[in-house]
Amino acid sequence: MDMSIRSGPARVLLAVEAVLATGLVIWSAIGDARGSYALLGCVAVGLLAGLRPVRNYFHTRWRRAQFDLRRVRRDPHDVVTRAFDVPLPNRSRRDGVTEQMGARWVDDTLITMLGIHADLTVPTTLTCSGVVPDYAGQTLTMCTIANCLNTFDISVDSVDLVSHGRRTAGPGHIARIYHATLGPLPAVADRVTFLVIRLRPADFADAVARRGGGSVGAVRAAVVTTRRITAALNDAGIAASILTARQITNATMFLTDGVPPGASDETWSQLIHDDTRTRTFAINPADLPKIAASSGWSHDALSTTLALRLRPGSQPGLCTGLLRVNEHPTSNRVLGESVSGLVPLPGRQFEALCATLPVASASWLDRSLAWAPLPTIGPLQIGGCGQLIGADGAGRGVAIALAAAPAVIVVGQQQCVWQVVSRAVATGMTVTISTDRRGYWDPLVTTVADHGALSFDGQPQAYQPSPHLHVVDEIPGMPIQFTDDTADMNVTLLYVFDDVTRAAQSSVRATIRLIHDQVSPGYIDLEVAGHRRRVSIVTTPEEWRMFGSRPATQRAPIRRSPLPISQLPAQREPTPERTSPLPLRPAR
Fold first, then answer.
1. Are 378 and 127 in contact (CB under 8 A)?
2. Cα(58)–Cα(68) distance, integer angstroms
3. Beta-carbon contacts of residue 582 (< 8 Å; ≥ 6 apart)
4. Is the pLDDT of residue 461 over 70?
């Protein structure tokens, strides 16, 4: 038992006993009505002094007993039930196969799921308070979701917006140096967003009866509701798609970083699996907008999951939230104390985990959470921002996801090229280099010191499910087109040129171009879809020393890393398998 729980009430009980003993002595000595009054007074004082601490003590003991009982009686198979597919009427793919909608029965609740898609090929503008929505479809608000829940004769029990992402991955020292460069920016390199729809057929029995009754009518009603919500989101400019049963199963594992919900060992304050731990917090309503947009993503944990829940019927116009972090204490990849407004959930960690997944959710936990008005929650980013490129004239961060493009061109000096490649490694991409000048790349490969993350073409390399970046360094005669045969692969080709002239003479058709200014070396021009944006290089002395050089100009803003490079661990931190159920880019 926690000694603070034991010692506090014990001291109070001792004081109460002393007061009652004093009353008994006075009553025995006086022996008349005045003695009785004195005894009653001492009893009253004792009750007033000990009631609240004793009540808290027994309340904690009761919660501990409930916690132990839930652990004994829990069956993971009742929590994560098998998903099944339902044919969608009048919906067929180009190959003639009927499209499917995945669903999952949990007790009296039917769960369906949507994938929310963002255009990752456009730059993301970041401030310390959140994402600047420069392009349509980059963000969405909870009010937008609430406005899409008008499903006529079918009521929705709850809708969860679940966003799962990470800032950094890969070799520990590379990820930590890049993390120090990001500072407080909510730059989530890799993020996937879902919408979990929960329906209770008992709440719309008439609608179920009109569609055949029983489980058949309930499933038909779920199909209608899910399609209505999907259409409403698409009409509002939010790209959404219905997930199949296989995608729902994959999404469940993706949201837990590959660990089945019942595979972790639950303690009073966390879930433990091997050398990682998972903690879930409730969010104070006053801090919900800030945590959802920025501070909830600006920490050192391995991954973060934000779940925001709407209840259109019982809590109209209100929203509640949970924040879950996956941590690795050995390498200091933990949440820390920097995020204010988080409320611990002792004894409820497994139920809180399930509340962030498309599985059974405890209604008693839902009732204990605090709710916040929807209008206070600003725009929330849908997809990942990729890696930081630099800062614009207003000092805002500018990032882009290289993995979302089939081909990228980088033109610049060695340190600039190395920075782009090392940040790709830091954000979790697996990088392979094809070059005829190994001396150009050897120092960077040696610094990274992880062939699973950065290696030369032809070296043995284990399979990695993460996005792959294939660097092509001006090799004469090497194919330089992203062919239709490889367009659907999770591979981005990055072509490196030393000067603009050679890049212009090439026949590469690149979605993204990064051009280092040779006259003003502190700047990079970012070109996407014909639009050019000038940004200044953002780095730290530690990052630049990793490349064996100092910044060429003092124009670039410098953030000082809180950790010297000598203290950064060289081991590779555990990176769970992250096979996203949603594609990074549409197939050609």
1. no
2. 15
3. 115, 117, 192
4. no
